[in-house]
Amino acid sequence: MTDYDLRVLEEGAYEEIYGEFEWDVPETHNLAVDVCDRWADARSKVALHWEDSEGAVESYTFAGLARRSNQFANALRARGVDRGDVVAVFVPTLPEAIVAMLGTLKLGAICMPLYHLFGPDGLSPRLEAAEPVEIVTDTGGLEKLRQATDVPENVILVRSNDPESHTTTTDFDAALSAQARTFEPVATDPTDPAILFYTSGTTGDPKGVLQPHQYSIGQRYVGQYMRDYTPEDVLWHSGDLAWAGGFANLVEAWTLGMPMLKYRGKFEARKALQLLEAYGVTLFVTAPTALRAMMDVPNAEIADYDLNLRLVAAGGERVTPDLLEWTEETFDVFATVGWGQTECYGVGYPPLGADRDRELGALGRPLPGFEATILDEAGNELPPGEVGEMAINRNSNPCLFCEYFDDPEATAAVTEGRWHRTGDVAIVDEDGFFWFWGRDDDVIISSGYRISPAEVESSLNAHPAVFEAAVIGIPDEERTNVPKAFIQLVDDTEESDDLRREIQTHVKDELAKFQYPREISFIAELPKTITGKIERNTLRKREHDQ
C-alpha cells in the first residue's frame, strides 16, 4: 500500500490517491487487536474519555482496555464460549460494553450489540434469531430480558448495586477478577464474521448484518479520507455504540490510536457544547437532528465556548446545504457529509477547492479503494445525471458485510454481480460526485416525474420558518402521487394558510413547480427512530389511517 500523509483535504490530491490506492489485507486479522492491543505498549496512551449525565468521569488507556478485554475473553472461554458463538452486549454507553466487545472478538466469537432502549418487543426477535450463548447487560436490561424471554443463567451483569440479589446472573467485575490479564487472541481470517448488527428497520423488518474482522482495515481509510482523521485528533461521535455508525467511528479512531469521547446521556445542545470544550474535541460527528438542536442556541452564546473544533460531520439522514453552511459559519470548521450503511461504506470523499461551493451537500466521490456506480432496475450502469440505485463494488471491499444473518435470500436480493445494491436512490454528476435522493421506496413518481423527497426537504429546510421537514408521496387521482410535507416550525412561529402558500412558493422558486409539496401539515415533532432518522413509514401510516 502506498504510504501517504493522509491529511488529504487539499484540492487536486484525489485523482493521484484514488488511482494508486491498493488494499493490503493480511492472512490473519483480528479486529480487537487492530483497534486496541497494538497500541497497548504505549501504556499511558489514552483511548477513551467517558462521562455520564450524573457527572461521573472516567478515563481508560489502550493498555488498560487490552488487559480488561483479555480477562473478559478468558471469562467467556471458562464459561464454554467458543469461536463462532454469538455474544449479545445489551448495555448502555458504558466502558464495560467496549470491554465486552473487544474480549468477544479476541475469542473469535461474534459480538451482537443491542441498543439499550430496546423494549421486550425489540429484543425478542433478535434474540430468537441469533440465539446468543451469553448476554452482557445491566440491571435495567435484565428486567427487559425477563419480559422478552426466559432468561437463562448465561447473563453477565454490569454495574449492579446488589449483584447478590440476582441469583441467576454472574457479576461482571467478579467474572473478570478471577481471570488472567493475558490472552492469546484467536488467529481469525480477515473475512471471518466479527460483529452482528441489526438495521434500524425504517423501511422494513430489521435484518441481521454480519461484518467481518477486516472491517477495521476498511474503516481506517473511511475515517481518514471521508473526514480527515489523524492520530492527533480527539473524536466525539454522539451516537450509540450499538449502532453501526457509532461502532464504525470507534474503529476509525482507534485504528489510528486516536482518543475518543463517549457520553452517556440524552443529547442536549448546551451539554454538547460543554463536552466539546471540556475534552478539547477536534472532530465532532453527529446526526443532522443534533446540529439543528444546536441552531437554537444563540450564536453569541456559542461564541463564549473555547472550542478546538476543526471538522464537523453529519450523517445518518439527509444533510442539507443550509445545515453545512450554518455549521461552518458558526464553528469556523470544515463541515462535511458522512455516508455509510450497516452493510457497507464506499462514498464520501468531500468536495474541495473550486468544487466546494457547487457540490456542497453532495455525498462525495468514491473513497480511495472503493468503487461506486448508479444502476437501473435491470442492473445496468447509468450515465451521469440519471436517477437510479447507488451500488458499491463488492470485490476487495473490507467494509462490505459478509451476509444477512441466516437469510441467504435477502443477501441475494441486494447482490447484482460485482455490485451491492444499497437501496439508496441517487445520481452521480459529471464531476463524479454522488447526490442522495432518498431510499428506493421513498422516491415519489408524480405525473411521470421522479421527485426526490430529500431534495424537496432540503429546499423546505432552507425556509426561515422551517425547523425541520419530511416529505412523503400521497395518492392523487390526477398525478398518481404528489409530495406532501410534514413541517416542524421554528419556535414561536404561527401556523397559517398564508405561511403554507409562502413555503410552497419558496419550493417552486428554488426547485421546480412539479416538485413543490401539494399538501403541508404542520406537526409538533417529526417521528424518528431511536437513532434520529425520520420515520417516513409512520407518516405514511398516519396518512393511510386518516
Helix content: 25-40%
Largest sheet: 7 strands, mixed
Per CATH, what is the topology of the domain at 30-188? Rossmann fold
Tell me which CATH architecture of the domain at 30-188 applies here.
3-Layer(aba) Sandwich
Low-confidence stretches: 1-6
Strand line-up in the sheet with most strands: 2-1-11-10-12-13-14
Helix/strand structural class: alpha/beta
Name given to the CATH homologous superfamily of the domain at 30-188: ANL, N-terminal domain
Distance linking N and C termini: 58 Å
Q: What's the average pLDDT?
A: 91
Radius of gyration: 23 Å
The level 1 CATH classification of the domain at 30-188 is Alpha Beta
Number of helices: 18
Residues in β-strands, percent:
15-25%
The number of strands is 27
Shape: globular
Description:
There is one protein chain. By secondary structure, this protein is α/β, with parallel strands linked by helices. Among the domains are: 30-188, 3-Layer(aba) Sandwich (Rossmann fold), CATH 3.40.50; 228-338, 3-Layer(aba) Sandwich (Rossmann fold), CATH 3.40.50.980; 442-545, ANL, C-terminal domain (GMP Synthetase, Chain A, domain 3). The protein is built from 18 helices and 27 strands. The strands form seven sheets. Strands 2-1-11-10-12-13-14 form a seven-stranded mixed sheet, sandwiched between helices. Strands 4-3-5-6-7 form a five-stranded parallel sheet. A hairpin with a 5-residue loop joins β21 (419-428) and β22. α5 (120-130) packs across α6 (139-148). The longest helix is centred in the first third of the chain and has 17 residues, at 62-78. The N and C termini lie far apart (58 Å).
